[in-house]
């Protein structure tokens, strides 16, 4: 207990001006609030590439490709040269170099990695995006850069990997780290963090379902998991403040061939650079 108290793991804070603006919108108009919340929900933060990721950034061969299914351009990173390829998928507000420590270890093991900046992320164009953009990007990259032996995804990238496999991505094994699960839970958490009443979560879901003519729950990770037959390693931290560990447990429950690995004290992002996590990931994909 003392260790956790001295090194607390905190979730990303919502800027106070966003919370205030949401409450102002809610005071005047429910319809306006839903539109504003939808814009916030689909707008990732573009972070500057941190120094720790610059080596992968500089050594990668980068291309801009069009994803015809969504008519959006994305930047793809080719890291290393090998016929044995692994696709890496970052999470919300992440980048194609975010899984660099995993990528470095894969290179040492003789693999090459292909990653990308999802639409509205990193060096890719756009300001807004949704999970289906991630999924279509993965499927298009497979056509252009595949075949891939394995897929590894973090957070929303984990959800996207499972959905992409459900939709035809052909890999031998997959690893999902800190993956979200039920879309409605994600909407509930978002509306709570921006200071809106619980009913706004349902209205936000209805807004997206009307706009995209699809059921949001169809993208929930546990639903995709029921269609995934290959071995999947689900890694999650018990202290993750962004995505509760119950998400991993629920996903694992719905996998036909799943392995669950829980960590402590690593949170949502630090887990990507943990040597034990990386070792477990490599051992999992290399075990026949």
From TrEMBL:
Instruction: Tell me which domain of life the UniProt entry assigns to the organism this sequence originates from.
Output: Bacteria
> Could you tell me which residue ranges the AB hydrolase-1 domain spans?
86-179
Q: Which keywords does UniProt give here?
A: Hydrolase
Give residue ranges for domain Peptidase S33 tripeptidyl aminopeptidase-like C-terminal.
226-286
Q: Name one GO molecular function term.
A: hydrolase activity
Q: Which PANTHER family match?
A: AB HYDROLASE-1 DOMAIN-CONTAINING PROTEIN, HYDROLASE, ALPHA/BETA FOLD FAMILY PROTEIN
Q: What is this protein called?
A: Alpha/beta hydrolase
């Amino acid at each position: 207990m003392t260790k956790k108290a001295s090194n607390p793991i905190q979730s990303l804070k919502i800027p106070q001006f966003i919370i205030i603006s949401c409450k102002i919108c809610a005071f005047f108009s429910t319809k306006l609030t839903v539109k504003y919340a939808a814009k916030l929900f689909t707008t990732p933060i573009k972070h500057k590439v941190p120094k720790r990721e610059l080596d992968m950034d500089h050594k990668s061969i980068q291309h801009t490709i069009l994803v015809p299914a969504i008519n959006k351009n994305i930047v793809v990173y080719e890291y290393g040269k090998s016929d044995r390829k692994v696709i890496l998928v970052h999470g919300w507000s992440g980048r194609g170099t975010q899984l660099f420590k995993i990528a470095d270890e894969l290179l040492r093991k003789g693999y090459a990695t292909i990653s990308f900046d999802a639409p509205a992320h990193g060096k890719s164009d756009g300001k807004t995006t949704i999970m289906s953009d991630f999924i279509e990007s993965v499927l298009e990259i497979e056509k252009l850069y595949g075949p891939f032996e394995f897929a590894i995804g973090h957070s929303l990238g984990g959800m996207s990997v499972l959905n992409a496999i459900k939709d035809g991505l052909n890999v031998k094994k997959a690893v999902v780290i800190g993956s979200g699960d039920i879309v409605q839970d994600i909407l509930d958490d978002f509306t709570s963090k921006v200071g809106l009443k619980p009913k706004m979560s349902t209205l936000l879901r209805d807004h997206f379902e009307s706009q995209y003519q699809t059921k949001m729950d169809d993208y929930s990770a546990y639903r995709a998991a029921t269609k995934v037959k290959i071995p999947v390693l689900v890694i999650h931290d018990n202290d993750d403040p962004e995505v509760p560990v119950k998400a991993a447990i629920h996903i694992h429950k719905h996998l036909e061939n799943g392995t669950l690995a829980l960590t402590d004290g690593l949170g949502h992002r630090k887990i990507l650079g943990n040597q034990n996590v990386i070792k477990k990931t490599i051992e999992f994909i290399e075990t026949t």
